[in-house]
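Input record, target 12 of the design panel.
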């Protein structure tokens, strides 16, 4: 099975959906922030490994604790995934912090700041002309 085959894409989608439910409903670790979202999943074609990309809403300390909690709960999450999905192999889970949303928000804010400065500068130039 190729990495981008229809079957692999479908498996990634199903694993993402199930892992979202597992994190939200089954993992009881107090370190895991309730505002944790599964952004993407990459399952290898042989179904042996899965990278779970998660986004955590909160400060750096909250992100760090959430990642610690998820790493400690990985074997339990894998067991839950095995019971929910009928796969030949249940992939070994690795959680990866995805900061792309936070990066996008930061860049949008910087763009807005530049626009406001340019607008203010342009208005000042009009006043002096």
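The sequence produced for target 12 reads:
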């Amino acid at each position: 099975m190729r990495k981008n085959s229809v079957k692999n894409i479908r498996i990634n989608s199903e694993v993402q959906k199930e892992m979202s439910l597992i994190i939200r409903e089954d993992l009881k670790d107090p370190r895991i922030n309730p505002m944790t979202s599964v952004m993407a999943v990459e399952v290898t074609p042989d179904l042996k490994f899965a990278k779970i990309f998660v986004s955590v809403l909160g400060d750096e300390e909250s992100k760090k604790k959430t990642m610690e909690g998820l790493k400690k709960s990985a074997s339990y999450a894998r067991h839950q995934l095995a019971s929910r999905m009928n796969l030949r192999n249940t992939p070994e889970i690795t959680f990866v912090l995805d900061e792309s949303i936070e990066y996008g928000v930061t860049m949008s804010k910087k763009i807005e700041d530049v626009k406001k400065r340019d607008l203010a500068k342009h208005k000042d130039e009009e006043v002096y002309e």
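The chain has a mean pLDDT of 89.
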